Write the structure tokens for this entry.
Amino acid sequence: MGEKVIINEVGLRDGLQIQPKFVPTEGKLELCQALVDAGVRSFEATSFVSPKAIPQMADSAELYPQLPAKDKVYYSGLLFNEKGYERAMAAGVKSVAVALASTEKMNMANIRMTLDEAITNLGALITRAKKDGHDARAYVSTALGCPYEGDVPVKVVLDLAAKLAEAGADKIAIADTIGSAHPKLTKEVVSAVVKEFGADKIVVHFHDTRAMGLTNAWVALEEGVREFDTSIGGLGGCPFAPGAAGNLATEDLVFMLNESGYDTGIDVRGLRKAVAIAERLTGQQLGGRITQWWLSQEHKKAAEAAE
Ligand code: COA
Ligand code: ZN
């Protein structure tokens, strides 16, 4: 068995949040079940945010208690304020996630807080979660580039990550929210945070806007990171981060890792079914490169059978 790598599936949250068509709770559960059947054991399942800001997440309180196999699977809920925390606790959430953007303008666009307010408020939510006996993960989003302010100095990422770690975060997730990273920048930022906090505290989250997702993931892997956020079919984007395309597709990263001898615990063929469900639910054609490859294989087989 190869070395273990955790795939944290964010399709149900980051993936769906930008989708214009509301996916009913049963549909989200069907997608989640297909992913669990394929072997996925870690999810960001939903967010407890204003339904006016993100209508797709309006059903988080109904969804969370019904998520499958909760004894075997890690499900976190993203939140940004006390109201979100109370709602998450009422739904039975045991793992909370918060997301601090790296710049003033992005925090203002996303959660209407200045950077200082966001540090204080999100830090307090992490501390509260830990005091209540829960797991807490903290995102430093737009860490590899901001749609409003451009480049983000590595020192800023390190300082923000340190504040979140001080507040008690179990994991720090470095997020390339708009897919602006390239391998050199990824190496610079990821090696700095790994050096500061240790690789087992770091998660990376890439969007695949410019086809750099897999390469960036490999760079992070070489820096020792063993946990990755991905989204089934490459669903994703943030309504408040112009230019953000989908996340790195789960099937692409799982395929690369499995082929390279790592142990993701995920059967890539099981993901095929999940991609098809996500396509039906969103009415969109999805899929990373592996999905395109599957399709070409299927067409080839069908053509051979017809001969
Ligand atoms: N859950 C449900 N409703 C919430 C809420 C939460 N966590 N937080 C606030 N609200 C509601 C309030 O009750 C209020 O409703 P009303 O207009 O019916 O009275 C409304 O949202 C505005 O509340 P306010 O406290 O003034 O918040 P705001 O307008 O400053 O917005 C956020 C702040 C954080 C609530 C909002 O920007 C948000 O939820 N953003 C989501 C960000 C996000 O998910 N981004 C993508 C992922 S990174
Ligand atoms: Zn994202």
About this structure: The beta strands are 6-9, 42-48, 74-79, 95-101, 135-141, 171-176, 202-206, 227-230. The pocket of zinc ion (ligand 2) is lined by residues 14, 175, 177, 205, 207, 236, 247 (CB under 6 Å). The domain at 6-306 is CATH 3.20.20.70 (TIM Barrel). The longest helix spans residues 289-306.
